[in-house]
């Protein structure tokens, strides 16, 4: 199991990890990569980071929390960015994506919170703490 401190930075790495999970409820936190200072180039990502990480620490033990950096600013704004295309189809960051994985495959997208929705404590509580997935 990946710990919340493990950070993925490519779709391939993320898909490989998801495949290894078997059947699991998952929340993926997508955000802009950090600069050398440790701060993300994305100010919205920085604004949401502490509340997301703090709430994720209270998550149900059955819930897998995954962090994923989508790249630097120049990479992110490219419409061909691998996170913007394909299975994840992100439109903005930060994004919290709640999924049900079954047999190592994405079975169901349960919810997607984008930008300011990632600051909403009710949204975060519903995803990390409640039995919302059931």
TrEMBL record:
Question: Which InterPro entries does the entry mention?
Answer: Thioredoxin-like_sf, TXNDC17-like, TXNDC17_dom
Its cellular-component GO annotations read:
cytosol
> GO molecular-function annotation terms?
protein-disulfide reductase [NAD(P)H] activity
Thioredoxin domain segment(s): 15-125
Offer one Pfam family short name for this entry.
TXD17-like_Trx
Q: Which family does it belong to?
A: Belongs to the thioredoxin family.
User: What protein is this chain from?
Assistant: Thioredoxin domain-containing protein 17
Please tell me the species this chain comes from: Oopsacas minuta
